[in-house]
Description:
This protein is α+β, with helices and mostly antiparallel strands. The chain is built from twelve helices and 14 strands. It has helices at residues 29-43, 68-76, 92-105, 143-149, 158-168, 173-195, 231-235, 266-272, 299-309, 327-337, 350-353, 358-375; strands at 12-14, 18-19, 53-57, 85-86, 111-119, 125-128, 139-142, 206-209, 216-220, 255-264, 279-289, 319-323, 378-386, 390-399. The longest helix is centred in the middle third of the chain and has 23 residues, at 173-195.
Amino acid sequence: MSYKAEIPYGVYWSTPFSKWQGSLSHLNAIAFGAHVAKLELTKRNVAIDDFDYGVLGTTIPQKHAFYGAPWLTGLIGAKDAGGPTINQACATGVRTLLAAVQEIEFGLVEKALVVNADRCSNGPHIVYPNPAAPGGTAEQENWVLDNFSYDPLGSNSMLQTAENVAKKHRLSFEEQHEVVLQRCDQYRSACAFDHAFHKRFITLPFAVPNVRFNKTITTLKGDEGVVLSSAEGLAKLKPVLPGGTVTFGSQTHPADGSAGLVVTTSDRAREISIDPSIRIRLQGFGMARTKQAYMPEAIIPAVQQALKQASLTIKDINAITSHNPFAVNDIVFAKAIGWDVMNMNNYGCSLVWGHPQGPTGTRSIIELIEELAIRGGGYGLFEGCAAGDTAMAVVLKVDNGQGASS
């Protein structure tokens, strides 16, 4: 199918992603997301005051997060735009996009702003009252560290889900490292010619503000904290878990950042697009859940559902990006769906540039759009797993009037 909603070409953005406890670690993620969105919309001459819907994706609590999307849109200047705040862990990027698409599909709104903003650094330490505990003592958790390492349903870490899938499919750490080296080479291509690819949607150099957003305290020339692996370096690594296959080199790292995009009607998309001859149409969405503690496998049924809704097969797809917290994800997906694992994420991925949760999928979707635009158009697929052994996928079409590229 083809939804009514479109993404106007070029009306999307991302910040560079910054390493754990790096240059963005002092900023409230929601306020920072609003700051960046306002700058980027103004840069594109997009009227801010006529947004009638806003979706905020954020997965790590920040001060004043209770006010969510209306706070964010108010900070930007879109004071008539209300809407939800959504947390679906690593799948938040697709879920917030779908939320905007659905509102437009049913004619409830015309111009939606989608912003995903998270900060893994300085995660909150939360205290929960428990009057029934001995002496009325409280329960507590470190939101980021505790939840990364413990699924309350299965008492397993996310890393264990990758190991379970690697064992089931007999994936060696050597096979995983081959994919890592390819992903690093693909990221290098995005950084070539002074970050020419990244500058299609990231403002570089990027001015990092202070907490009051009235002064620049440093600048980033690109993503911060990226480690581009070598064969020699990977060979020295041992699996993180005893008897396992996943090393620190074959998994992503926590990061900070934000990313956003506009979703609107076809007519309004052409009005605000930086190139009205290029159309970005949404074709299908998928969501799935798999067996407990086998998270990377959830992407397979999610992709199948998205392709079915789009009335396409994998042979119709021209480019694929993924959220791959582990190299295992891409290998298992490619084998199951019938795709060359080395021919996806052609300009980078979260395995390399990091994982700030909500913004991760949004950035990958933007990179997918830009890859298709460079190719001359075609169908694209994004997929990614999420906490709770779930996954989401989206199929979109970029049409520049020349037809799909093979």
